[in-house]
Design brief:
With about 575 residues, the protein is α+β, with helices and mostly antiparallel strands. It is built from 24 helices and 16 strands. A 6-stranded antiparallel beta sheet has the order 2-3-1-8-7-9, with no helix packed on it.
Length: about 575
């Protein structure tokens, strides 16, 4: 989890580089480098490194002897870099997985490069020979990147919005946009001799996921057909591969473990793979809760079953409440569901960073969107509507749960990996008939659960444990985390402020005092212009409810009811 930052078309003397760039220093605590691309005087880039693969010579901005005209910044992991190196016969100069991007770009250009990469990435390439700046981002936006552009031929790109805010403030009176760079796309910007960027290329994004290469399974043999047993076997094959490839690291690796299906599957497979390499090694696992919360109890059972080195972090209500404002700044979001779920994850990441030597952590993010895990999917009008909603959630994931996972962990110098968002796995899963992927027998994510049923990978009570949102499961059922938050905020927002909320916040007008409070904190730190980075507040579909918590839904079952 590194940080990339670049500004193009600016005279460096006109920008406070350190004030702007150092706002994302938490993403790369191991090393930092700021560089002007000498042959393109208005191009300045910076890299904040969290060293995972590649040793000292994996530092960026990266230039190699073979292509001195190319400068690379990449926040990402490329899992198939060794295979691509062998396949195309490249002469590797470093041990970094990211070097493969330079070789592929030089040989094929950016579109085929992105299509060939198996991994997650946010990329900046400066090509001084062709006078171009290239930006690209992975399929689901697992690695973040924001960008802005002005009408006078300037752009900026950064892993977090806060690294560009001061620069955009200095462009008063110049029309501009400030947005997340869209996942699954790339753009090529032409740079004129005076250092300005072509206005025509500012928002001409190009998708690379339609390229057949990108949908190609990574040399994994799958059985043909849609009969149930064949599908289950293929799911196991692809998902185990997705976890295994993400164990690539020269730093200590662990796994988040809430005790729900998603994180438990990831942890169980990872623990098994680690033991294959060295039977004496144990996977560190981490759970968090307020006392004997449902998640803590379930995670304890999983840890005992898979033989992990388990850490339980207990927090109080006050500790959670005191962290909320810092969480909103770290997230760059005021979405209610995102803030609620991020707070315990933020505190857990803080513990991992401060109290252990674990740097890379596995996570179950993406499963609910892909496999229809949210409780409201029980109310889908038809399999086709469920399929449409699942794909919409995956498309928007980078603004919600993926954002939460990235910022909560990167704020403490950790790197997170999400096997459920593996491209080969998701493309196969989404190719299955819609009615196979919908909830069945009163159980969400039924197909994934049944695929691992009978394998012994997890205890049945965990494999078939009903959905418990992370923001709910960390607290007791007597008083949920969302109720604790609402009680705390009740006196911080007046009834008069709520009556005038539409005038104060015309975009995404808060519908509750909790939402109003989060929005106020957000705009105090970032201003009103960035409010549109969140296009809508996350809420369940197909049902009428006033709160996004799963515990307010009629279909919600606690563990006792589910037995």
């Amino acid at each position: 989890m590194c940080g990339i930052w670049g500004i193009f078309g600016f005279d460096p003397s006109e920008v406070d580089l350190f004030t702007s760039g150092f706002k994302i220093a938490h993403r790369g605590p191991d090393n930092f480098q700021l560089q002007n691309v000498s042959s393109m005087k208005t191009c300045t880039v910076a890299f904040y490194r969290l060293a995972i693969v590649g040793g000292v010579n994996g530092m960026q901005p990266m230039r190699i002897q073979a292509y001195p005209h190319l400068t690379l910044l990449c926040n990402g992991e490329i899992y198939n870099y060794k295979r691509l190196t062998e396949e195309f016969g490249f002469d590797y100069e470093t041990e970094s997985d990211c070097e493969i991007i330079l070789h592929l770009y030089n040989k094929f250009g950016i579109e085929k490069t992105c299509a060939l990469l198996d991994g997650v990435f946010a990329i900046i390439i400066v090509d001084s020979r062709r006078r171009k700046v290239i930006l690209a981002r992975d399929t689901y936006g697992v690695r973040p990147m924001f960008y802005f552009a002005t009408t006078t031929g300037q752009i900026g790109a950064c892993s977090e919005a806060k690294g560009l805010i001061d620069i955009t403030k200095g462009q008063n009176g110049v029309q501009q946009f400030f947005e997340p760079f869209p996942p699954a796309h790339y753009n090529v910007y032409d740079v004129s001799k005076d250092g300005k960027l072509s206005l025509e290329t500012k928002k001409q994004f190009h998708s690379f996921v339609d390229d057949p290469l990108h949908w190609k399974y990574q040399r994994i043999q799958l059985e043909k057909g849609f009969d149930c047993e064949t599908v289950k076997k293929n799911i196991r094959t692809l998902f185990c591969s997705a976890v295994k490839k993400r164990l690539m690291s020269s730093r200590k690796l662990g796994s988040l473990l809430s005790g729900g299906l998603d994180s438990s599957l990831v942890a169980a497979i990872a623990a098994g793979e680690i033991k294959k390499e060295n039977s004496s090694l144990k996977l560190p696992t981490f759970s968090i809760g307020m006392g004997q919360s449902p998640d803590v109890i379930a995670a304890r059972k999983v840890a005992a079953h898979i033989g992990s080195e388990h850490h339980e972090v207990t927090i109080t209500e006050d500790e959670g409440l005191q962290a909320v404002d810092d969480v909103i700044y770290a997230l760059e979001s005021y979405d209610v569901t995102t803030v609620r779920a991020s707070t315990p994850m933020y505190l857990l990441a803080k513990y991992i960073s401060n109290e252990t030597d674990t740097i890379v952590i596995m996570s179950g993010e993406g499963a609910d969107e892909l496999a229809q895990g949210y409780i409201y999917f029980h109310k889908q009008p038809s399999p086709e509507e469920g399929d449409k909603e699942s794909k919409r959630l995956l498309t928007d994931l980078y603004m919600y749960d993926v954002l939460r996972t990235d910022r909560s962990t990167a704020s403490h110098g950790l790197e997170v990996r999400a096997p459920f968002l593996d491209h080969a796995f998701t493309s196969y899963f989404l190719s299955l008939p819609a009615d196979m992927r919908m909830p069945k027998d009163g159980m969400e994510k039924h197909l994934v659960r049944s695929a691992f049923d009978g394998t012994g990978l997890l205890p049945n009570e965990i494999l078939w444990r009903s959905k418990e949102a992370f923001s709910d499961g960390v607290s007791s059922r007597k008083k949920s985390w969302y109720e604790i938050l609402q009680d705390h905020i009740e006196d911080k927002v007046t009834d008069e402020q709520m009556e005038n909320a539409a005038q104060t916040f015309p975009h995404n007008t808060p519908r509750s005092k909790e939402a109003y409070y989060y929005r106020s904190v957000f705009e105090n730190r970032f201003g009103s212009k960035l409010a549109k980075l969140i296009p809508y507040q996350w809420m369940p579909k197909w049902i009428e409810c006033d709160d996004p918590s799963a515990r307010v839904l009629s279909h919600y079952k606690n563990d006792e009811e589910a037995k």
